[in-house]
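Hey team,

Filing this mostly as a record. A colleague (T.K.) asked me to run one chain through the structure pipeline before their review meeting, and I want the input and output archived in the tracker in case anyone asks later how it was produced. No errors, nothing strange. Just documentation.

Input sequence:
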Amino acid sequence: MVELADIQSAAQRLSAHTRHTPTLDAGSLPGGPPESRLLLKLENLQVTGSFKARGAMNKTLLLPVHKVSAGLVTASGGNHGLGVAFAGKTLGAPVTIFLPSNVPPTKAAKLERWGARVIWEGEVWDEANRAAVELAEREGMTYVHPFADEAVIAGQGTLALELLDDAPETDLVVAAIGGGGLISGVATAVKGRKPGARVIGVEATGAPKIHQSLRAGRLITLPGVTTAANTMAPLASHEMNLAIIREKVDDVVLVTDEEMREAARWLWFETGIAAELSGAAAVAALFSGKIPLEGVRAACAVVCGAGTDGLG
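Output structure:
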């Protein structure tokens, strides 16, 4: 299991490579108590446009030099691939990214601009991931898992340390769930630093793999996904992430694609923030009344990724 000390070490390691992103006070918390505040942790301003640069860079910085030079490979809905491409470009590692067909072509083009080799494989992340693992084993490259990796989880958790430094009054943190790496790192950091704060995860109604797994008491693999938020759409999480979420996350709620679109439009028109659907998921959960807000002083929604797919 990842511990607070692992995240603190990752923060020191990453300080020269990733951005301390701002926490924006966005005004009163809709539906919250009087004088409660809505905070936005702006990971859409992170290097490559999402929090994923943190985990990928932390993982790569921990590799021996010969492993870095042999190359990195992963499968991604786009954002993790960009994080790995950033780490590879920074540290001199060749990078190969497998993408499923539900990834927007604009992200593939961005990956190539970061110097990565892009290979399209399958319709969902899980299919692309199998091909990535096979290539890593065949060619002796390092496979960088997007969520089931202790170094990756520790890297993602560093954003929560920044948040609590910048806004120590925060007593509710809300973050989207794709595979579960972000919420695992955030919850570990928050519960380690401020045990009384609540942490809520958010999944799409069209990809509720953690929501179903928690209720079933075991890891569930979905038969398919229907959400347009492709970065939230693997068919399954991992036992590592499920164990952390079960221990440290207070609840997991579901939001619809339309609720995410409405939140993305609010972010754009009210704050000028261009968030992809997953980047607006935490705001959507707060605005749609999915999370009890009694007694909350400051709720922080992690705006985890930049994009414009929520503005259509």
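Quick notes for T.K.: Residues 150-166 form the longest helix (17 residues). Residues 284 and 307 are 16 Å apart (CA to CA).
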